[in-house]
Design brief:
heterodimer, A: six-stranded antiparallel β-sheet, 6 helices, elongated, B: Jelly Rolls, Serine Threonine Protein Phosphatase 5, Tetratricopeptide repeat, four-stranded antiparallel β-sheet
Amino acid sequence: MNTAHIDALDRHEMRDGFVWRPVRRRFGIKAFGVNAYTPGATKQIVEEHTESQLGHEEVYLVLRGRIRFTAGDDEHELSQGQLIFMRDPALKRGAVALTDDAAVLAVGGKPGEAYEISAWETWFAAARFVQAEQWDEVIALHNEALAERPDHAPLLYNLACMEARAGRRDNAIAHLKRSIELEPKWAEHAAKDTDFASISADPDFPAA
Amino acid sequence: MSDGYTIVDLNELEAFPYHQRGGQKLLPIQRITNFRAAGMNGWIGDASEPLVPEHAEDSDNEELYVVVQGRATFTVDGGSFDAPAGTLVHALPGELRSAKSEEPRTIVAAIGATIGRPFDNPGWTSFVVADALRREGRIDEARVAVAEMLALHPDAWHAPYNAACFESLAGDGDAAFAYLRRARAMDPEGVKPFLAEDSDLDPIRDDPHFQELLA
């Protein structure tokens, strides 16, 4: 058994101003996705996004305070004890806090498939280190995620981006090549990605 | 509201006593939303009431409890601790867990699934709802919940078996026997030990058809 209060979870303030409070990572949960969010510098509490790429169904449960939730073109005020189940992954979603103490728990996964840890958790966890250009920490977080999913092309691609920014040419090219082997679409992304500015003229650079 | 989402207010959702345990009051989130990525339900209780039924989970079944409002005392493997609103409790497989309410209208949400497997709704909440409705005399509504349970697992013998228990207790012997025959056709060895001992079947036990099933 392991227990924590939502206020004791790690705080990762993201660029949009919302604060990611990692729940799944805190407890090492592997059967479903679960995280909490609180407002930070802005009133944003759930970033605007869709789940089209992952195909996830999601539940957002208000644990404290009040929020204004956007679901597609609709807006709803939700307070403690209310939840919104987002059945359609393509539906745009996001929320702003209406009270400073607001807290939301998000639960998600893809119906019909065993849960896989989403790669975005690594981007979120690495964000503060990317901002500070602390590349060792950024790369360590990617390697930790890749230890569980060594052939995850988006993770490999993002690792290559970070390595290129860190000036680690050999590793960046090797990881970019591997991501393209797994999913050729990454070659097109790499050709336009400014993260690769330091190596894009390199004869070994594998982009299209 | 669009077809793409559903809003549920846990303070407005009808709670159903889990009579076959300690009468803990289930908030059937799964049934209302049909969330398919993980199991998700709630429990609501007033001060000093049992909140989460005592149970353990099999290996690889992970559960997270979240105190949504009020205050609870959780007991996990004999150790108790205070859990005010906002507390998250991650219980490991095999750990015996339960909770009781410490304040009026305490609500705990429970989320669970199995590592490495797609979530498969076991349908137990539909049976809890059906049983609670039957005891209140709301038979038509109860049969809707039974039908949901049967639809979830059309190939599993325990679904028609539980439907037979429901109809036995609801007083429809013919329906009970029809379900029992269906369950027995699916898995005679699975059904047999329950037939001999299950008190839910007492209302039809003296019927000659019951002896045919035991044969």
